[in-house]
């Protein structure tokens, strides 16, 4: 009886263990106890930009186009009632769309130039290795060369950001100190507040310039390190014995008729000028050295890489400006109210000095600011959720405008003002702070994975899959990035298992380094169906 009891207890224990194991497997959705995984599948993804703003009363709104153009549409009239977010006027966007396409083309050209110069340096550094030229890319460079290339481009990008911030700080200083330097300019008396504002602006401009100088020194150091590596590679190649070109006889003369003086018998014209087929040094007009066995011309310098990155940054800024101008070609009412004045006519040119005025007492709006990197994601008409501090009830609003003139934050970075209209009604306190969540993009994606499963290495995104107990890293193309799930456009199929965590590894700490994971839409949200 005791033996039978022990068997029953043993069987029951096995059942409990198996049941517990099943629960653990279902929780982790993994076929291996060493990994926590999830299954890729369809979901609705929402990317948001989360920030804070200030509630302000709106009594009137004066709207105008930032740039001149022909008015293509004017669907409102004086005295007409309009709603928040309603289109008031629109310019002809043909030329503006062309400017966006041209700016994007310039950016693509600049990016291709940088990639080609990086690949050229890689090819030069790899000349002594048996690697088909077809497979020589910037990513196949030696680790020290690749890291030094990245250091140069990263340092140049930071300097470009510093220069933009410094220019904005200087402009802010000039504006703040205008009445101090020239008190009669606006016929205003100087006050202590004016003096304090000017002093603060001067200090911020000096700090921005100091930061720029420090980062420029980092750029110079990065260029020096890369130049030293390129020079070392060139020196190593010059000391290696060249391989005799095909067709050259043992005496060193080419079977194609090269003379003992090193020049082709047909290498000179009757006028004494060299033919483009061969120079006296044995190099062709295309820069190929015969003695070097077809070695390419000198690779791009470190300074050239920095110049390439500067061109990319400038072109990127032009794309942002062109896109903002295109978005600003549509005037949208920030409030519900009555059209009180229209300063231009449909079919006629409109200047930046002409406006539409909408009166709407009782309405409210929220003003906030976004960085220069976030500004390109914001467009008039986007839906936003506003939650006043102390209130648990969100209010649905709409982005009505984004400013084209940047202001400088306390950290020296440029920021752009954004206005969000709110519906009339409700008790809102002017000056109160509110949480703002702007929906920047949505997608009903066929394949999504948890955002934490996506890793960024440089500009490439990847996930780790688990199949048959084996893991594999796959490069993927991401679409809309939400807080919880991310859209995968290519590289993964629905039903694939992706690794969220390796349970055998220690938990990450503040000092852990490695590949970066995605951050969901700058604090954005994502909702998974099913």
From TrEMBL:
SUPFAM superfamilies assigned to the protein according to its UniProt record, in alphabetical order: HlyD-like secretion proteins (SSF111369)
Composition-biased stretches (Gly residues)? 517-530
Instruction: Cite the residue spans of the region called Disordered.
Output: 229-297, 510-530
Chief place of localization: other
Keywords assigned? Coiled coil
The answer to whether keyword Cell division applies is: no
- List the biased-composition ranges (Low complexity): 248-289
Query: Which InterPro entries does the UniProt entry name for this protein?
Result: MdtA-like_C, UPF0194_transport
Identify the domain of life: Bacteria
Q: What is one Pfam family matched by this protein?
A: RND-MFP_C
Question: Where does the record say this protein resides?
Answer: Cell envelope
Q: Where is the Multidrug resistance protein MdtA-like C-terminal permuted SH3 domain?
A: 446-501
Q: Name one GO cellular component term.
A: cell envelope
Extract the PANTHER family matched here.
BLL5650 PROTEIN (PTHR32347:SF23), EFFLUX SYSTEM COMPONENT YKNX-RELATED (PTHR32347)
**Designated name of the protein:** HlyD family efflux transporter periplasmic adaptor subunit
């Amino acid at each position: 009886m005791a033996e039978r009891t022990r068997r029953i207890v043993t069987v029951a224990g096995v059942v409990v263990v198996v049941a517990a194991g099943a629960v653990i497997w279902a929780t982790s959705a993994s076929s291996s106890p060493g990994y926590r995984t999830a299954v890729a599948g369809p979901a609705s993804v929402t990317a948001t930009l989360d920030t804070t703003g200030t509630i302000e009363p709106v009594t009137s709104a004066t709207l105008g186009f930032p740039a001149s153009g022909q008015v293509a549409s004017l669907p409102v009239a004086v005295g007409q009632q309009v709603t928040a977010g309603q289109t008031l006027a629109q310019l002809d966007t043909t030329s503006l769309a062309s400017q966006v396409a041209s700016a994007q083309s310039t950016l693509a050209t600049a990016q291709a130039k940088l990639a080609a110069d990086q690949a050229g340096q890689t090819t030069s550094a790899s000349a002594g290795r048996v690697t088909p030229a077809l497979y020589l890319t910037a990513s196949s460079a030696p680790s020290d060369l690749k890291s030094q290339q990245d250091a140069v481009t990263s340092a140049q990008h930071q300097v470009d950001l510093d220069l933009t911030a410094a220019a904005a700080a200087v402009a802010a200083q000039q504006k703040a100190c205008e009445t101090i330097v020239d008190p009669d300019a606006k016929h205003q008396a100087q006050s202590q507040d004016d003096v304090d504002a000017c002093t603060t602006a001067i200090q911020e401009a000096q700090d921005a310039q100091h930061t720029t100088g420090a980062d420029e020194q980092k750029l110079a150091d990065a260029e020096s390190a890369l130049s030293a590596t390129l020079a070392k590679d060139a020196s190593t190649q010059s000391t290696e014995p060249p391989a005799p070109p095909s067709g050259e006889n043992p005496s060193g003369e080419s079977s194609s008729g090269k003379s003992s003086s090193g020049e082709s018998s047909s290498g000179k014209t009757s006028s004494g000028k060299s033919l483009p087929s061969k120079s006296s040094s044995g190099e062709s007009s295309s820069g190929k050295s015969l003695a070097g066995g077809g070695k390419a011309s000198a690779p791009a310098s470190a300074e050239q890489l920095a110049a390439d990155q500067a061109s990319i940054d400038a072109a990127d800024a032009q794309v942002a400006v062109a896109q903002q101008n295109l978005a600003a070609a549509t005037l949208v009412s920030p409030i519900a109210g009555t059209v009180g004045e229209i300063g231009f006519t449909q079919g006629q040119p409109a200047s930046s000095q002409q406006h539409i005025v909408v009166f709407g007492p009782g309405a409210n709006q929220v003003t906030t600011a976004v960085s220069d990197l976030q500004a390109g994601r914001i467009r008039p008409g986007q839906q936003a959720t506003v939650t006043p501090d102390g209130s648990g009830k969100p209010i649905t609003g709409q982005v009505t405008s984004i400013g084209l003139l940047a202001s400088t934050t306390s950290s020296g970075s440029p920021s752009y003002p954004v206005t969000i209209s709110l519906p009339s009604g409700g008790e809102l306190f002017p000056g109160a702070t509110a949480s703002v969540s702007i929906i920047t993009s949505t997608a009903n994606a066929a394949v999504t994975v948890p955002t934490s499963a996506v890793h960024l290495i440089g500009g490439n995104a990847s996930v780790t899959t688990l199949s048959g107990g084996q893991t594999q890293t796959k490069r993927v193309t991401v679409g809309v990035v939400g807080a919880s799930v991310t859209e995968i456009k290519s590289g993964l199929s629905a039903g694939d298992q992706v690794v969220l965590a390796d349970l055998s590894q220690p938990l990450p700490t503040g000092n852990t380094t490695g590949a970066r994971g995605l951050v969901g839409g700058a604090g954005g949200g994502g909702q998974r169906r099913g």
